[in-house]
């Protein structure tokens, strides 16, 4: 198996600079740092990361650029995230394989190789913790607003198959929140109902009850306003297989959203 691990990762903007992380998000930082060690121990060849803040309108994008480099200022929160330099190698060959697998499955997946493209903070923030040395190649994936959860799940299945059959040691990261009906005030927890749904969804993942998680996601994503409409979770469910063992590494709220670090190892 060359998909060594799948990961649900947080990217809340206040985590971009570690010195600014509030107490109630410290467990997220701890969790990501533990995963950094694991990614290193696994001698990971490639990280494939889908971000809720890379919103393809009609297509699922795959950034196959061989060298990613840029200075990122968040368009949503330029006061919090400004002038963040990043530079990571890419993996054009594996990126192209992902594109082909998506197209072959009848999914509108488009690859692009454009050194002027600037990454979003949902991609950059977790990578600052997970691979601070910036030496592991990265393939950045979008979500797609025109895609249903079912289509995104099928795209996740295609991604998982390519990664499993790859000769490379790969990690799939789904970068996004659980419930996400945002309110002003970073310290606010999700509502009790949202927390109940988050907990149930996490429980399904922890017990590898993936069919139940998938069924729940249809309503949960709407009622709890799950980030990106739940698309990053649908893709994660497509990538996962029931024998992958789940572990929980941290939770933190951010402005009424729920954020968790979960890993799934084959
Ligand atoms: Fe986000």
UniProtKB/TrEMBL annotation:
Q: Which InterPro entries match?
A: Xdiol_dOase_suB (IPR004183)
Query: Does the keyword section mention Cell inner membrane?
Result: no
Which keywords does UniProt give here?
Dioxygenase, Oxidoreductase
State one molecular function term (GO): oxidoreductase activity, acting on single donors with incorporation of molecular oxygen, incorporation of two atoms of oxygen
Q: Pfam families given for it?
A: LigB
Q: Which domain of life is it from?
A: Bacteria
Residues of the Extradiol ring-cleavage dioxygenase class III enzyme subunit B domain: 6-249
By what name is this protein known?
3,4-dihydroxyphenylacetate 2,3-dioxygenase
């Amino acid at each position: 198996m060359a998909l060594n691990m799948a990961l649900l990762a947080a990217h809340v903007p206040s985590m971009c600079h570690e010195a600014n992380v509030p107490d109630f998000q410290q467990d997220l930082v701890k969790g990501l740092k533990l995963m950094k060690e694991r990614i290193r121990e696994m001698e990971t060849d490639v990280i494939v990361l889908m971000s809720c803040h890379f919103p393809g309108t009609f297509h699922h994008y795959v950034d196959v650029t061989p060298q990613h480099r840029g200075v990122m200022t968040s368009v949503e929160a330029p006061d919090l995230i400004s002038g963040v330099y990043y530079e990571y190698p890419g993996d054009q060959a594996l990126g192209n394989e992902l594109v082909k697998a998506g197209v072959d499955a009848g999914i509108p997946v488009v690859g692009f190789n454009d050194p002027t493209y600037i990454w979003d903070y949902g991609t950059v923030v977790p990578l600052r913790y997970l691979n601070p040395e910036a030496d592991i190649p990265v393939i950045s994936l979008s979500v797609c607003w025109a895609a249903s959860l079912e289509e995104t799940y099928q795209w996740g299945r295609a991604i998982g198959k390519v990664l499993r059959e790859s000769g490379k040691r790969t990690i799939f990261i789904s970068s996004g929140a659980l419930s996400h009906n945002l309110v002003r005030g970073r310290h606010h927890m999700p509502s009790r109902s949202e927390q109940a749904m988050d907990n149930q969804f996490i429980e399904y993942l922890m017990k590898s009850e993936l069919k139940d998680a998938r069924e729940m996601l249809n309503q949960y994503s709407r009622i709890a306003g799950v980030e990106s409409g739940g698309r990053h979770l649908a893709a994660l469910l497509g990538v996962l297989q029931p024998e992958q063992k789940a572990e929980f590494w941290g939770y933190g709220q951010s402005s009424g959203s729920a954020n968790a670090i979960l890993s799934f190892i084959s």
